Amino acid sequence: MDKHPVANYIADARKFGVSSDRIIKALTDAGWQTHQILEIILEHLPAAQAVEVSADNVISVRGITKAYGKLKALDNISLSVRQGSVTALLGPNGAGKTTLVRILATLQTADSGTALVAGLDVVKDAQALRSVIGLAGQYAAVDETLTGRENLEMVGRLYHLSKKDAKARSSELLQQFELEEAADRPAKNYSGGMRKRLDLAASLIIRPKILFLDEPTTGLDPPGRFTLWQVIRNLVENGTTVLLTTQYMEEADQLAHYIFVIDHGHIIAGGIADELKRQVGGDVLELHLANREDADKAAAVVRQFGTETPHADSTTGVVTLPTTGGASILVDVVRQLDSAGLKLADIILRRPSLDDVFMKLTGHEAI
């Protein structure tokens, strides 16, 4: 396949040491839009010239460290993200998930280490990179005084789309996110779910190849979460790469092709959901005590049936215990609890969930 003229120009400019920012400026001055430039890079430049962009490595993080005073938010983090996939970052509050996303989105700088996104260095090529990525944070960043349509058109113009293109793209996104009926109402009258959808639509105004989502469904009711999940699936089917943080284990299970578990600034595990679940092993025995205050006593009674120390939650009255005994242990468990004078509201034997993985790896419950 013949190279695109723009690809030839980029390759020649790099040979003479021209920076990415200068290359992007020259091309945009010539009328090219930055998202078009990225598409040409991905399609026409060889891997060596595309600076590590490949089907297996569209985001590359190596040795990233970030500290706030004496607190290390990230400690020598390294990871890679495949193009056209959903990668989830799981971890408790303060684990470093949002800090990493902000560094990759050029909103913060790391103290050490390197990160490439779509072949662009997040520090050296920050200006060029901002023009080819999308970001939606925990809180919808919309102008409440503007209508939904005006919000999207404004973002489009900030990305240097023509007035005509900004209007057309806004109409397309309003339809895609089921906001047409509310398009000309002020955003201050939108529900929480509608604001989230509008914020996500704004992050897609330039059709970014890479989208960062920081806890995108926080605060949404179940129907709103399910709707947003389907939107994300549709984006990935059309080639978008998504890196998301989430506080919902179910969300990672539903969406992510690959999961990194982060705790205290370190990646402590990584893999597909089924691989992580296998780390728990066997089944999980789940006891619901009639009296929540009996959880610790019940944990001591059933410990003999598990492969690890049981976890007791006195606020919910639930005890969980990894076990390999199968259904045959249920009768013995009930007998032992009955002998100890502990009453059950329910008993369940199930396959491990990501919550169980999280508990095993971090020693505390998922947030």
Describe the structure.
- The structure is a single chain.
- By secondary structure, the protein is α/β, with parallel strands linked by helices.
- It has three domains: 40 residues; 171 residues, Rossmann fold (3-Layer(aba) Sandwich); 71 residues, Alpha-Beta Plaits, CATH 3.30.70.
- The chain contains 14 helices and 14 strands.
- The strands form three sheets. It has a six-stranded mixed beta sheet, sandwiched between helices. A four-stranded antiparallel beta sheet has the order 2-1-4-5.
- A hairpin with a 2-residue loop joins strand 4 and strand 5.
- Helix 6 crosses helix 7 and helix 6 packs parallel to helix 8.
- About 3% of the residues have low confidence.
Which key phrases capture this entry?
14 strands, Alpha-Beta Plaits, 23% strand, elongated, 3 domains, single chain, Rossmann fold, alpha/beta
How many strands in all? 14
Kindly estimate the percentage of residues that lie in beta strands according to DSSP.
15-25%
Broad shape: elongated
CATH superfamily of the largest domain: P-loop containing nucleotide triphosphate hydrolases
What structural class do the secondary elements suggest? alpha/beta
Oligomer class: single chain
What's the CATH C level of the largest domain?
Alpha Beta
Question: What number of structural domains do the residues give?
Answer: 3
Provide the spatial order of strands within the biggest beta sheet.
6-7-8-3-9-10
